[in-house]
Design brief:
Elements lengths: L7 E4 L5 H12 L3 E5 L14 H10 L4 E4 L6 H15 L4 E3 L15 H33 L6 E5 L2 H5 L5 H21 L5 E8 L34 H7 L11 E5 L2 E5 L17 H12 L10
Parallel strand pairs: 1-2, 1-4, 2-3, 4-5, 5-6, 6-7
Antiparallel strand pairs: 7-8
Helix pairs in contact: 1-7, 3-4, 4-6
Length: about 300
């Protein structure tokens, strides 16, 4: 018996890396999986049927899966993805948005097309599948009046949560996904849908583009029962649990899974506060007030 017996999942960007790890784990837990991948390079070029690689592994292990080759940022294509899950397996229960590309460079050198491409795949490519899944779940909810138990798990990264040199496009996109997660969790909870976001870390094709990165590995390269802290599937058990009925109470959360650690990321929240006592702020005095009372640094222009 698995955590996800009888469930139907759609995983985007699941031809390789972290997405493949998620698809394999969801299938291991009993889900039927639609494996989406456009088959492009890490920079979003080309195309192919890489999804078939993951489908073959799932089937070889006794699971059920079908391939899908749509572009996640194509609105109609995202709709066809969701419809394929319904046509093949009767409904959709779990959506894991993982697809992504990188085109790194500093802002001085980054082209407009490189910015737009990364934002399009990550942000629109998360929103569009969420939109079509939400419509499907809303129709089910209106038909029965019962919570549908839908699950969305999005993907952010450390770059989006803390910033990273040379990735104004990627970091901005990943931060937007975290914010989208929190908003969708508010909108969809009434129909029994939870929305959470994971921040994985692994030796993937994307990290392999960075100087000094470890060698790229695939989730199925790691033998059963062995531990590799850079395994692309390190975060996949967390994804499977968030997709299960055990996680009914968890929504709107950002959770990083880095090697041995699962880290709950606190959202933006109020910190130390200045109060002007109902008076207009004086720009000439703000430097000292902020330095001492907010930032905890020495006040500029003062001797100590």
């Amino acid at each position: 018996m698995g955590l996800l017996d009888g469930k139907v999942a759609l995983v985007t960007g699941a031809g390789h890396g972290i997405g493949r790890g998620h698809a394999l784990e969801l299938a291991r837990q009993g889900a039927k999986v639609v494996v989406n991948d456009l088959g492009v390079s890490v920079s979003g070029e080309g195309g192919g049927r890489d999804a078939d690689l993951t489908v073959e592994i799932i089937k070889a292990r006794g699971g059920e899966a079908v391939g899908n080759y749509e572009n996640v940022s194509d609105f109609d294509g995202a709709g066809r993805m969701v419809q394929q899950a319904i046509d093949e397996f009767g409904q959709l229960d779990i959506l894991v948005n993982n697809a992504g590309i990188v085109r790194d460079s500093t802002i001085v050198k980054m082209s407009e097309s490189d910015f737009d491409a990364v934002m399009n795949v990550h942000v629109k490519g998360t929103w569009a599948p969420c939109k079509h899944a939400a419509v499907h779940w809303n129709d089910r909810y209106k038909a029965t009046g019962e919570p549908v138990g839908g699950r969305i798990i999005n993907t952010t990264s450390g770059a989006g949560l803390t910033g990273n040199f040379g990735q104004t496009n990627y970091a901005s996109a990943k931060a937007a996904i975290a914010s989208m997660t929190q908003t969708l969790s508010l909108e969809l909870y009434r129909m029994g849908v939870t929305v959470n976001c994971v921040g994985p870390a692994a030796a993937t094709r994307i990290t392999g583009t960075m100087p000094g990165a470890p060698a790229v590995i695939e989730a199925d390269d790691v033998p059963e029962g062995e531990w590799n802290r850079m395994d692309p599937s390190v975060s996949s058990p967390l994804v499977a649990w968030l997709a299960s009925s055990e996680a009914d109470h968890v929504t709107g959360q950002i959770i990083r899974a880095v090697a041995e650690n699962i880290i709950w990321m606190k959202p933006w929240s109020d910190g130390p506060t200045l109060n002007n006592g109902g008076k207009r702020w004086d720009a000439t005095k703000l430097g000292t007030q902020l330095a001492t009372d907010i930032f905890g640094t020495r006040a500029p222009g003062l001797r100590y």
